[in-house]
# Entry
Amino acid sequence: MEELEVQQTVELRPDEYFIGTVRYSVDDKGRVVVPVELRQRLGSEFYLTLSSYDTVYIFAPEDWKRYTQRLMEYYQSNPQRYAPVLQRIMSFGQKVKVDNNWRFIVPANLREICNLRKTVYFVGIGDRVELMNEEAYKQRFSKITAPEVKELQAELGL
# Structure
């Protein structure tokens, strides 16, 4: 009988979740200021990649490690099926560093695909932050305030 390796899951404490929404601007050079609310948890170096929604996921280093470990487990279980996902996430992945003013540059390829110009929103979603343009934010907001979502929230007792 094969022994399965038991992987220990690191749980985030509630005070470690990314929460809230903050509106900011992108300058002409593609720089965005890290909101004060996110600085301690993100740190001065963090990771960006393309989400499945064509928005940017932002990860603190320890969250990026967990995320990419999960990705590699999927890939190793079925390389043929998950290779495109691995390539999408890793090819758009980038470690960024903030400057003295807590600004970072969103790479041009991510700015283009995600249409990040002028106004952007940082949206906390637990173990990561999602960076999106104003149109994507409005679409997402209209979905999460829909009656069926409110009903599901009530059904779950949340």
Notes: The first helix runs from residue 36 to 42. The chain has six helices and eight strands. The helical segments are 36-42, 61-77, 79-92, 108-113, 134-144, 147-156.
